[in-house]
Amino acid sequence: MDNFTSDISGQQFPIEQRIWGASIRQPIFKLIRKEYPGFAKDKCIAASELTRFKEAYITEFLKDESGQLSQLDQQVIQSFKDNKVISAGIDSDVGGATSVGERVADKVAEFGGSWTFIISFLAFLLIWIAFNTYWLNNKGFDPYPFILLNLILSCVAALQAPVIMMSQNRQEAKDRERARNDYMVNLKAELEIRELHEKIDHLIIRKEQELVEVQRDQVEKLGFLLKKMEKIEEAFKNK
């Protein structure tokens, strides 16, 4: 296996890890020059060594954006370093385990905000009023002005409101968690796109260098053939 020597550490690495300075983005190149002033565009570095400078650049980039690294930024940097997928397990994290009370609150809020509840409640009110007014001739257990009905309505409203607020608070917590995960995924995607651009530039420069080497080899072979032809011509002339 062919190896090359890194110009910043002097260590041997596989040739597949060789990255030329010309293919490194300018901000990362400046970080390398800051630590190794002798590093230039025609020098090379190993991909494993470049990772450390990428992490330093990402850290400085995020600090410049927000002034300091938040916990989310640190998690993104760590996932970028470990090459892990942030979006894995987001749905399970957002959903989480729910208690019986939370499930009941969700069901109450779902039913209380539906047309089924509105129509059913209106039907209940009409039946209650009609039963006490007409069937019992306004002499039943709740005659006009329907004090018992007003008490029931007040109790329902008093109990329903906090239950719906409980469900809304849980939904807001889910929304915050989703927004947090969206931020992390978007930031990771931006960093991955930056790295992808760098890899494409590296591949283009590497292919150009390979073409230059092939052309150089072809020129050397042509020169050798021309010299050989000149010698043959001289030999014919001498005869």
From TrEMBL:
Keywords: Membrane, Transmembrane, Transmembrane helix. The chain crosses the membrane at residues 115-135, 147-166. Pfam families: DUF1003 (PF06210). PANTHER family: INTEGRAL MEMBRANE PROTEIN-RELATED, MEMBRANE PROTEIN. The keyword Membrane applies. It comes from Sphingobacterium athyrii. This is DUF1003 domain-containing protein.
